Amino acid sequence: MALIVQKFGGTSVADLNRIRAVADRVAATVRAGNQVAVVVSAMAGVTNQLVAWVRDAHADYDPREYDTVVSTGEQVTTGLLALALNNIGIPARSWLGWQLPIRTDGSHGRARIDDIATDELMKGLSKGEVQVIAGFQGLAPGNRVSTLGRGGSDTSAVAVAAALKAERCDIYTDVDGVYTSDPRIVAKARKLDKITYEEMLEMASLGAKVLHTRSVELAMKYNVRLQVLSSFSNEPGTLCVNEDEIVEQELVSGITYSRDEAKITLVRVADKPGIAAKLFGPLSDAEVNVDMIVQNVSEDGKATDITFTVTKGDLKAALKVVESLKGELGYAALVPDSNVVKVSVIGVGMRSHAGVAKTMFETMAAKGINIQVISTSEIKISVLIAEEYTELALRALHSAYGLDSA
Amino acid sequence: MALIVQKFGGTSVADLNRIRAVADRVAATVRAGNQVAVVVSAMAGVTNQLVAWVRDAHADYDPREYDTVVSTGEQVTTGLLALALNNIGIPARSWLGWQLPIRTDGSHGRARIDDIATDELMKGLSKGEVQVIAGFQGLAPGNRVSTLGRGGSDTSAVAVAAALKAERCDIYTDVDGVYTSDPRIVAKARKLDKITYEEMLEMASLGAKVLHTRSVELAMKYNVRLQVLSSFSNEPGTLCVNEDEIVEQELVSGITYSRDEAKITLVRVADKPGIAAKLFGPLSDAEVNVDMIVQNVSEDGKATDITFTVTKGDLKAALKVVESLKGELGYAALVPDSNVVKVSVIGVGMRSHAGVAKTMFETMAAKGINIQVISTSEIKISVLIAEEYTELALRALHSAYGLDSA
Description:
Two copies of one chain form a homodimer. By secondary structure, the first copy, chain A, is α/β, with parallel strands linked by helices.
């Protein structure tokens, strides 16, 4: 008998028929001899409506009241799923964040979980009762409701799985797992059976919107076996595990892309110490997140070009900051470019293999694609290229790294 | 400086514009120098949707889960009103039932309030902060959410007012007070400035759907000055008070009617001891609420007619029970009649004046209206008449008791 945590997102519980389908799926897991704790999100669309009301009531809202209002979405689903389970003969009860409690810090609207009390859950599970837990919410200091921020239900599920020392945490979504690349672009993309936490983290932060980054970090920290699978099929999904659990580690596990990139180039900035600080300090103060940075070696030792990338949404704010610094930085020209895409290859295998970057650059060259910016980490290489080459680059790299399905 | 409790129902908080209007009204009371605690209902329609979902999830639902789901309506309004108040510069915070807590018994779905902790509320009020409290909900034993049943927010408001020893509890509704009769029928009906708790109780249970009976009982028990007034005007409403606060008590305060009545007559039942028990015992077992009962004196000492009334909704069930008893009761015929209305005159003044019933019967006779059943209590007289005479009877009685406005 295993203890399984299952998490169902908004589209999986969008209406009562879907909630009944979720109940059937939970029931099947129970009848297969498992103890089950379920974490649920709000019905699709509900949270957006609640957030809109809050913003309409007060633009500069008190986040404690935001949490009071917005947490009701999960509360409704939790009760309804417990009832739908009862309805098919499965004992079940709902739990709200304050009832267990799921204690969080006081960062309302984006709280972090400090501790989950499990006594009552374990008591219920040992009686064969399904524990249905409201995701996304907790109890903050001062006896107020807190929420974990968007995508927080994934984090709730992993935290519950860690606290209960569950065998596995199954995250049901509307995709059936993690793919080697986006199947809408790369027809030969394959679903991965297993992926390491670190690769999954890079995937999540580099554009594959399957799991919330925080939930993967938490799973890695507490060694929770995390499975991503579809609530609309019965196929196994993709399991996030420790590196040592993957015997035949591939060199590259996935190729991702992000169109949400914009490039800014400062032409002929004075090449002297402190320039970078003068540029990136004010950008950080303006809460502009800078991703890739390149500074060319200057030819004459007097001036250099600086290029950096931000999200498309931050471009305007970034340009405003840079323009305000014109006097200090004394650049010759400021060149923004939104027609760029960031393509990344990810794989823990590249730690021990040197040829990964070489393959990437050769593949780009062979297709005539100019690389504008490069950034690397221990397990990924990202390049910024013109957006029009996105599909070509993804397909070529997918083949080059031997990821194509047969 | 007075401490006022204000309660706003579903139509008063139906959308954000209405909630903003409520905030303005609360703000005016605060700026007039009062401390204010506000009790709110769910936005109109929300509770019905939630109840429908619960019933759809499980026809024979666990009332604890019902309460978990249905209580979210008030939670949303509470947060939104606190924000709308903040937005116009009024410090305010929301309180859920479990946060104060408002302790109730364990009768989920129709819980009774045991106790309200007021320390935190008093602390907030003394700082000049408006306390916005979710109506309808509480904390049941076992740390579960409870709800008080439909109309429970009125009860919450009165209980909060009693606990805080408030100067007054103002119940804002979509009518501007309690009238001597239904103004849609009796054009000369007048709004009452004051009414006794007992009269208000009879009004509530006899068809005037202004306040929930339980809230009036509670106000009477704890001597809470209860005002019913419109959230869409600035006129004073009707104040429920103790009898001794009304100096010039009128003989009759109001004339109500209820169309939700059905009459059943058992013709020629054996006139022997135990017959009433044989009839009304099984009806009670079938949860049929019997209201008025008449048993004629038999002419020959052998058989009698029994007539009683039930709500229209219970008629079918009542007939089924009576038919199943045919063998035992041995009646000659069973005659149902749904074309009846119950008209009642209410007034604490009739305790000390004998002529009230006489005026009623004479007025009915003068208009040629046949009285089918009569029932009386200390402060009301009810008669059952054919439905077609409703308007005629109400207007005639209204004049006869001198209630017509000039």
